[in-house]
Design brief:
Blueprint: E1 4-9, E2 16-17, E3 30-35, E4 37-39, E5 45-47, E6 51-53, E7 65-70, E8 76-82, E9 85-89, E10 95-100, E11 114-118, E12 121-125, E13 132-134, E14 140-143, E15 155-159, E16 162-167, E17 170-173, E18 188-191, H1 193-196, E19 202-208, E20 211-216, E21 219-224, E22 235-241, E23 252-254, E24 257-262, E25 265-268, H2 269-274, H3 288-295, E26 304-308, E27 313-318, E28 323-328, E29 340-343, E30 351-353, E31 359-363, E32 366-370, E33 380-386, E34 396-410, E35 414-421, E36 428-433, E37 463-471, E38 475-476, E39 479-487, E40 493-506
Parallel strand pairs: 2-3, 10-14
Antiparallel strand pairs: 1-40, 3-33, 4-5, 6-32, 7-8, 8-9, 9-10, 11-12, 12-13, 13-14, 15-16, 16-17, 17-18, 19-20, 20-21, 21-22, 23-24, 24-25, 26-27, 27-28, 28-29, 30-31, 31-32, 33-39, 34-37, 34-38, 34-40, 35-36, 35-39
């Protein structure tokens, strides 16, 4: 009788997706596919959430800019841009169009705005368009009477008690505490052309570690003393050459760091400063080549990023491809990259995180909330595939006998186990359905309350843990396992996979 051997994946997908390296050399914690997945708070691969409509009736166009605006009375409103117009989303989730206060002196002709909110004012900037603001007065947006030298800045930020905007190589700042005045006492500008060179322009602005950060496409400049930019303390403290930001809305403050999209992937400002003179362990290292390829076909102002502290991830959306890269922010891998998964179908066109932590998404015809486990009412396909493995001996053929899966999801959730041998892309498939069952065999007791008597997990009602055992067949030197499911009702999380096989013939 042949001796049964096993391969155990104790925390499937723990290291996230890796498309950068050979699948046969990766450790078990990496995934060769992790589509519509997240790394859950316990470090296991699980399904992402979906989206639900906030507005009850659809409007025309894709939402390409979102912001939460605080009115003078403290009320919160959602502002958005779609269909070459600006809107306010009311408390009853109907939309009110904002119109030009000066009888159409300014015509809105695109939707790629950046909306900067500060001190009860929302500032709208977009390359090639006149800058406008909204201050809650009636339903109007307004042109600037105290505009910066440029009336069409491409990017901006609110920090250091001012609004900052940039056009080409010039960065302008408003008067202190006044987002409407860029020409009065205390306002000003700085020209960074001599720093960046003639062939680079400012692409984004933010604050980091009490410094103003000015991004070009191939440069990053850091300025201290931004609390008083007219004073002698306002000066450049660092200049990084050869690395910059290629997409304005990718820049996001992530805890104590800043993430941004560069020409060679997603980077961290903190790591870039630390390792400017040596190879950089960038955020997207494990998907770098794939990501860079997809980015090359995108318009820079259509690329959007967001950090959700509540969900512990940084999202980067590439609308032309339909892909969203989800970077887990709970921990850093040994090579200083972040764990990453990839989303499809959801395809957000804008983001904002509300003060209450809710993540809102722009959709075609809707402002939506990242919520539930369906895309509107449509199922989405979750896919997880292991690396290639050979049971520790590539010279011996393995005969597959059984696969055992510990999986958490809703009762009657249909799933499919996929498996293939020797790099074959024609996977065999075995269907299974989650049933009422619970076990603590796989060290998942943390999902269940101490006084639970109904087999439901703490983190979501109606969720059960099932222990699936499937008798299988087939043989090969190298094997790969996948799990797929059409998610529509509740979270799905893969806890552990055990693969059992016996030795077959020697491979010559």
């Amino acid at each position: 009788m042949s001796v049964l051997k096993s391969e155990t994946i104790a925390a499937p997908g723990f290291f996230g997706l890796n498309t950068q390296e050979s699948g046969i050399t990766l450790s078990d914690g990496f995934a060769l596919e992790a589509t519509n997945c997240i790394i859950d708070k316990f470090g296991r691969i699980g399904s992402r959430k979906g989206w639900t409509k906030l507005n009850s009736s659809a409007f025309t166009g894709q939402v390409r800019a979102l912001a939460e605006y605080t009115a003078t009375d403290g009320s919160l409103k959602i502002l958005y841009a779609a269909n070459n117009k600006l809107f306010r989303l009311e408390d009853n989730f109907t939309s009110t169009e904002l119109t030009d206060a000066d009888a159409s002196n300014i015509t809105i002709t695109d939707d790629d705005w950046q909306i900067i909110t500060y001190n009860n004012v929302a500032v709208f900037v977009q390359q090639g368009h006149e800058m406008v603001y909204y201050d809650g007065t009636n339903n109007n947006y307004n042109e600037y009477t105290n505009a910066p030298g440029s009336t069409s800045p491409s990017c901006g930020a609110a920090c250091f008690n001012r609004v900052w905007v940039a056009d080409d190589n010039i960065v302008y700042w408003s008067r202190i505490l006044d987002a409407k005045d860029f020409s009065g006492t205390g306002s000003g500008f700085i020209n960074v052309r001599e720093i960046f060179g003639e062939d680079d322009t400012v692409t984004a602005l933010t604050a980091y570690n009490n410094r103003l950060v000015i991004f070009g496409r191939r440069n990053i400049a850091f300025f201290s003393g931004a609390e008083d930019p007219t004073g002698i303390r306002f000066q450049m403290t660092d200049h990084i050459k050869g690395i910059g930001c290629i997409a304005r809305d990718s820049v996001q403050n992530v805890g104590t760091d800043v993430f941004f999209l560069s020409a060679d992937g997603v980077r961290s400002v903190g790591r870039t400063i630390q390792e400017v003179s040596s190879p950089i362990g960038d955020v997207s290292r494990n998907v770098r080549d794939e990501l860079v390829q997809f980015v090359s076909s995108e318009s820079e102002f259509r690329i959007k990023g967001i950090f959700s502290q509540q969900d512990a991830f940084y999202l980067l959306t590439l609308p032309s491809t339909g892909f969203v890269y989800c970077f887990d922010t709970r921990g850093v891998l040994q090579d200083q990259s972040r764990r990453v998964t990839k989303w499809t179908q959801i395809n957000p066109t804008a983001y904002v995180v509300r003060k209450n932590g809710d993540l809102l998404l722009g959709q075609n015809g809707y402002v939506a909330k990242y919520d539930g486990f369906a895309d509107d009412t449509t199922r989405y396909r979750m896919q997880y595939y292991t690396n290639y493995f050979d049971f520790g001996n590539s010279t011996v053929e393995s005969i597959l006998k059984k696969v055992r899966i510990a999986i958490i999801g809703s009762t009657q959730q249909d799933c499919a186990l996929k498996f293939a041998f020797d790099y074959d892309v024609n996977y065999r498939s075995v269907s299974f359905t989650l049933a009422e069952g619970i076990t603590s065999e796989y060290n998942v007791d943390e999902y269940f309350s101490d006084d639970s008597t109904d087999n439901e997990a703490e983190y979501s009602s109606g969720i059960i843990l099932d222990n699936i055992s499937l008798n299988l067949g087939g043989r090969g030197a190298v094997m790969q396992i996948g799990i797929e499911a059409d998610v529509s009702a509740a979270a799905l999380s893969i806890q552990k996979i055990d693969i059992f096989a016996t030795d077959g013939k020697l491979i010559s």
